[in-house]
Design a protein that fits this description.
Blueprint: E1 7-9, H1 14-23, E2 28-31, H2 37-42, E3 50-53, H3 58-61, E4 64-67, E5 70-74, H4 79-84, H5 86-91, H6 93-99, H7 105-110, H8 113-119, H9 125-132, E6 136-141, E7 144-149, H10 150-153, E8 154-156, E9 159-160, E10 167-173, E11 179-186, E12 193-203, E13 209-217, E14 224-225, H11 227-233, H12 240-250, H13 264-283
Parallel strand pairs: 1-3, 2-3
Antiparallel strand pairs: 4-5, 5-10, 6-7, 6-10, 8-9, 11-12, 12-13, 13-14
The chain binds flavin-adenine dinucleotide.
Length: about 290
């Protein structure tokens, strides 16, 4: 099957891209790396009136910047740039680490952080990392900009709160906690995850953890923050009892899907096992 007919627009500036999205009254789609959009067009799962190709906007959307304590990554930054960026490596090592679990080299050479978030795959590694790192997503229309906390961005299976005429322009990250850990169970390496777990926090000299965040992928219709579990870990020293209790609380956000990759019961079975595993590894303070 071939894509349905569409107009092709190649803006030279972000303003031109916003104008094109506005003119098409919510019927246009942004084309970034095309790694998810092009297959969906080919299967006619989408029939946009126009594609607004942002690949010429690298100057405005393709930068990785350290702005004071914050790190700002433009929407058009490719997975491969994240993998090799010294700024990301120093400030957001978790981001660099999770990219290695995404697709293959070709996908990572083309796929972008903006596309990954707008795609809102419930198993997306980038989405999970943005949740656990407490990122803010910056979206733009002709009227101006709005900041959307990652925790409020995902709205359902492959759905986000982005409006059709909004362009995701950047992702802002606060300083990362001292320790991060990620685990993914897939059918094979680089396949979409069956289950993924990311956790982050900092530990004081007294051994108590602060700024704890725990996120799960593949367990619901969207990537989930396990807030109750994180609260049970906050301000505590972690022994086996604390970790077991948090792993049990993490089940509160699980409403696992049954799909071609795994059944719901299998996913549910994996959650406490791998939450415990990630927290124990984090307790040993491996920085990733
Ligand atoms: C073989 C293969 C394996 C893959 N494996 C994985 C995997 O293991 N894990 C994973 O997470 N993903 C995987 N993917 C998906 C991949 O990560 C995609 O690159 C990503 O989901 C979309 O990024 P993109 O830049 O290609 O976006 P596109 O495909 O261009 O766009 C995706 C969607 O986002 C919208 N969009 C893109 N950019 C913006 C923007 N700036 N503002 C507003 N809307 C925008 C588009 O309109 C479209 O709806 C895989 C893909 C392939 C083909």
């Amino acid at each position: 099957m071939k894509a349905a007919p569409f107009e092709y627009v190649k803006p030279a500036t972000v303003d031109e891209a916003l104008l094109a999205l506005d003119e098409h009254l919510g019927m246009a789609r942004v084309l970034a790396g095309g790694q998810s959009l092009v297959p969906m067009l080919g299967m006619r799962l989408m029939r946009p009136s126009a594609l607004v190709d942002i690949n010429g906007l690298g100057e405005e959307l393709g930068q990785i910047e350290a702005r004071g304590a914050e790190t700002v990554i433009g929407a058009l930054v490719r997975y491969a740039d994240i993998e090799t960026s010294p700024v990301v490596s120093e400030r957001l090592p978790l981001l660099r680490h999770v990219v290695r679990f995404i697709g293959d080299r070709q996908v990572r050479n083309r796929g972008t952080i903006g596309g990954a978030l707008a795609q809102a795959d419930p198993t997306g590694e980038m989405a999970l990392a943005c949740l656990v790192l407490d990122a803010t997503i910056v979206a733009c229309t002709l009227e101006g900009e709005r900041d959307i906390p990652a925790a409020e961005f995902f709205a359902g299976s492959y759905a986000s709160v982005l409006e059709a005429e909004e362009l995701l322009v950047a992702v802002r990250f606060p300083p990362a906690p001292d320790h991060c850990r990620f685990f993914e169970r897939g059918r094979k390496h680089n396949d979409f995850a069956v289950l993924s777990v990311a956790a982050a926090g900092s530990v004081g000299e007294d051994g108590a953890w602060t700024g704890v965040r725990l996120a799960l992928g593949g367990v619901n219709d969207r990537p989930m923050l396990a807030a109750a579990a994180a609260a049970a870990l906050e301000g505590r020293r972690w022994d086996d009892d604390v970790i077991d209790h948090a792993a049990a609380l993490a089940m509160e956000v699980v409403d696992a899907p049954d799909d071609v990759r795994a059944g719901a019961a299998y996913r549910e079975h994996l959650v406490p096992i791998h939450v415990r595993r990630v927290l124990r590894e984090l307790a040993h303070r491996e920085r990733r």
